[in-house]
Amino acid sequence: MHPVDVDRQTEVSAAVPGSGRVVDEAVLRDLRRTFRGELLRPGDPGYDASRRVWNATVDRCPALIARCTGTVDVLTALRFSRREGLAVSVRGGGHSVGGHAVLDGGVMIDLSPMKGIRVDPEARRAWVQPGCLWSEVDRETQQFGLATTGGMVSHTGVSGLTLGGGQGWLARKHGYSCDNLVAADVVTADGEFVVADADRNPDLFWGIRGGGGNFGIVTSFQLRLHEVGPLVLRGQLFYAPEEALRALEGFREFAAGAPDEMTCTASVWTAGEEAHLPERAHGRPVVMLGYVFVGDVEVGERVAAPLRQIAKPLTELAGPVPYTVLQAQDDESQRHGLRRFWKSQYLWDLPDAALETFLGRGAVSPGEPSLGGVRLLSLGGAIARVGEDDTAMSHRNAAFDVMVSSTWTDPTEADRHMGWARRFHGTMAPFSRGVYINNLGSEGEERVRAAYGQTKYERLVALKHRYDPDNVFRHNQNIRPSSTRLPG
Ligand code: FAD
Question: Which candidate, 267, 289, 291, 271, places its Cα nearest to that of 375?
């Protein structure tokens, strides 16, 4: 059984600016005495910039934005919100596609000013505050030839990505981001400060490695680092439709035997006028096989060689690049301020029928480069060597993540873009089981359950009941406590 698709993203999930509860000056006066960061209300300079998130379809107006400078600000803002009966959302990097970082009418606890990073190269540890983006962490750690698994777009937030799992180019070699979390400082729903690690509050430590922001606000992440780069190998091979199926069959075989250092992707879209593609490819479906090798570059070249034999590419781009360049390669195409919609699911193998369906994206809209693309990402390696019950992060043995994503600017085109993405997702669903929680939009409780599986979900519900019985942290991929007292 596949969970029913009830995704609720609509074009402009907005409230009327200024709607909902207004926090008046008298109430704020006390808070201003103890809160060190900025407190912004509708109309204040900086308010609109602070409430904006990555996905431009999200347009919500908090009654108050509390821009925190440290853990005490987080504690203060949370206690204030609870005392005043105001709902809260928590903002890290603001990249959740459903816009969970921002809410209408309540308090947005904005962690983005908290940018501290400390690296201990000998111990191979980084202490990272929750407002950091991956570009900032990579910059500090690469100074010492080190890195940890981060997202594949460098302006994504460390916070939400790590708490929900964290796929990245290093994951097959070093595990998900959450697998590299050694300890965290957490502000709990009742306004207490605790440390979570293997010895202190181990149940909480289990939950924040994949359970998202459901159990508390993390104000510091201690992350394990590894030797990486500075150069890594990146390759992309582009194929015309005539070669596409052969290329994908070869990709399937290659990915199955690839070493942990190698992560493979396959994408299908309708080409625009991309300069690296020959003119005869423009306006036609194109398949790209991509690979990244995060070990020795010469070894990587030898490992990648068979991939180059499987079919005749239109063109190929390959070569060593600095790890930080790899991390930023999609920053521009994934920039802020565009309207976005995506859906993803896990595949456990790739039967011929799944490959053909995946390739069918090309047939959906030849001549329409404006519609988005679909991509497969290989998983496995170190990801699958962590036990399924060791962390809240689930589906460790999935072989691929398949994602469809759409981008547009004109609000009147939303239905077309979301419609085809939903249709593609539906055609892949018979081959899939489960979904990665951080790739969910606003898709309903069934899909959150699907991200964990029933047994794991029940354990998470019990943990939620222990740490957040009132469901204070509910503007997220919400796991409801067993007896929620507030409306969900
Ligand atoms: P936010 O929207 O700020 O936060 C996401 C959720 O986490 C919210 O519910 C928020 O309340 C909660 N939260 C944030 N910080 C805290 C905190 N400190 N304590 C408690 N709760 C908190 N995922 C991958 O795994 N790999 C990728 O390569 C990848 N690439 C991406 C590229 C782009 C362009 C985008 C938009 C997303 C990508 N993602 C990727 C998905 C990403 O993991 C999620 O969007 C994630 O939620 C982003 O975290 P954030 O802090 O930026 O987002």
Answer: 267
Residue 16, pLDDT above cutoff 90 = no
Is the CB of 218 within 6 Å of ligand 1? yes
pTM for the complete prediction? 0.95
Q: DSSP string spanning 375-420?
A: EEEE--THHHHS-TTTSS---TT--EEEEEEEEES-GGGHHHHHHH
Q: Which of 378, 438, 479 to mutate to test the pocket of ligand 1 (most atoms within 8 A of CB)?
A: 438
Atom index in ligand 1 nearest the CA of residue 473 equals 11
How many percent of the chain have pLDDT more than 70? 93
Q: The tokens 């090309």 sit on which residue?
A: 362
Mean pLDDT computed over 8-25: 59
- List pLDDT tens digits, range 378-419: 999 999 999 999 999 999 999 999 999 999 999 999 999 999
Q: Whose CA is nearest to atom 41 of ligand 1?
A: 438
Cis check for the bond before 313: say yes or no (omega within 30 of 0).
Answer: no
Q: How many C-beta atoms lie closer than 10 Å to residue 273's C-beta?
A: 10
**CA 161 to ligand 1 center in whole angstroms:** 4
For residue 161, give the ligand 1 atom closest to its CA.
Answer: 43
Whether residue 164 has its Cβ less than 6 Å from ligand 1: yes
DSSP letter, residue 158: H
Average pLDDT, the chain: 93
> Does residue 54 have its Cβ closer than 6 Å to ligand 1?
yes
The answer for 381, left when phi > 0, alpha when psi is -120 to 50, beta otherwise, is: left
Would you say the CB of residue 96 lies under 6 angstroms from ligand 1? yes
Residue nearest atom 40 of ligand 1, based on CA coordinates: 151
Q: Are 439 and 7 in contact (CB under 8 A)?
A: no
